[in-house]
Amino acid sequence: EETSDMSASDKEEFIANDTSKKHMALRASTAPARPLTDIEEFKRSSDFLLLEHTVICAAQLIQRHDNKFDLDSEEGQRACKKFLNQIERLCEIFKVNSIPRDYRNMFSKAYRVLYKEGSLCYLTEILDSAQEGFPYLYVNGERYVFSGEVLEAGNRLFHSFCRFQQVLRDIYNKVCEETCPGTVPQIISELSVALQEFDTDWVEFEHLYVHELMVIEEDARRFITQAIETERELVLIEVKEKAKGRNLHGSDNYNKNREKLVKLIGRINSVANIEGKGRDDLTVEILMTAEGVSRRLSSCKAVKVLTNKIRQAFTNFRLLLRKYDHNIEVVDPQLKNNPELVEVLTNFEASWELGKVYLLNNKRFNQLVFFSNLIDDMSYKYKNFKEQVECADSELFLSLPCLLVLKCLQEEDLGICRYFLPTMFNEDEAIGMVWKRLKRSYRLGQLAASSREEYDDLLEKIIIGESIESGLRTQILNQKFDNLDYSLNKIRNLGMELSRFKPLDW
User: Fold this and answer.
1) Which of 378, 371, 453 is nearest to 412 (CA)?
2) What mean pLDDT is reported for the chain?
3) 7-44 pLDDT tens trace
4) How far is CA 127 from CA 84, 118, 153, 217, 306, in A?
5) pLDDT given at position 131
6) How many whole angstroms separate alpha carbon 121 and alpha carbon 115?
7) Per-residue 3-state assignment (H helix, E strand, C coil) for 128-161
């Protein structure tokens, strides 16, 4: 209908235009896409994402005011560990020709457990040691100096670590430019070279540093090692002598080795016993005296307890050495960091220290025996006192010093009161005047009593809190001359001071 009024030429033009419109949708609206460059393809790859993530991790490192990195805080350690892990992944992805880690096979077990086999394992502890560059360290109070070679290698590693971060940023920025100068192989080659240099510096320092640490640790453990060797000798002698039916204590070789071991225990105790005094003057005579005394005075409870503790402390240390003999590396070279060792040494020092005081000094030994027998005698005589001893009743610690003051009045205390309260015998001191008045009162009381023995028994019973029969006091003492309360008051006063003057010794 539209073309009915058109001329022939107009019809041809209309048909041509209509055909053009129908085929318009089939033509491309733009030119074909341009192929991506190598750099653009690289920026879309997982390798570039790894590179970018590593750059981000580098930016998260915490730097200190001295331009070194914070590896003390938990946050700083975590950031550094993450970055080192990224470096390791870069080495794996870009197949960097890293140096073999065969030298780690020579590390002690304590160090080998830190490394994963077949892995580069860049440890933050190694980097921290490199950046700090401490020229020496103290172990067990002894100074150990690192070689110049180790310090130089550490300095190189730290600067290599810093330099690698700069190279990494430069490469990343270069790739991100619109017109990147260079090709992907060139970029990968540049990154691989930087990674290889870092790995070389890392291996050099790690190898030297750990080797010197192992030498230091071996030397720091030398007293333990020597003690283990001596313990082996003792066991060998014990087996041989027992097989021959001989008395071990008569063997000079056995006693010499025991003396050697005790000296070594003293050396170890002086550096490892942080709970005690770290004494190194406790000799084998303490052990030998304890063994001799335990055979002669087995009936004295206090002596028996002390000698058993001395012998057991020595045995416990020997047992610990046998345990260490299975694997010396379980021993921390900083000996004070071994809780089991410290505990054994603390018990050793406590018992042997008492042994030195009470077994090697005849006067103090006799005082101990007297004191022990006094407690046994009182326990046998008085049920109430026996219960106090068995229950460690608080009343016991009031009555015991008072009993000693009474024994001092009777001149039977063997000098115990003079040792624990010397001012009691100095009349220029206030407590000395109390003692002077007590002696006078005690003598008058004895004179006024029906007998001295009965008067002493009466004092003894009242001191320990034993019940007294009705009328017993008046039978023994005339009421007109009864000064018992006055004397008891002075005895309790002195007894309290006796336990306070040297509280730890008491």
Assistant:
1) 371
2) 89
3) 555 545 544 454 444 444 444 455 566 677 888 888 88
4) 10, 20, 11, 20, 52
5) 96
6) 6
7) HHHHHCCCEEEECCEEEECCHHHHHHHHHHHHHH
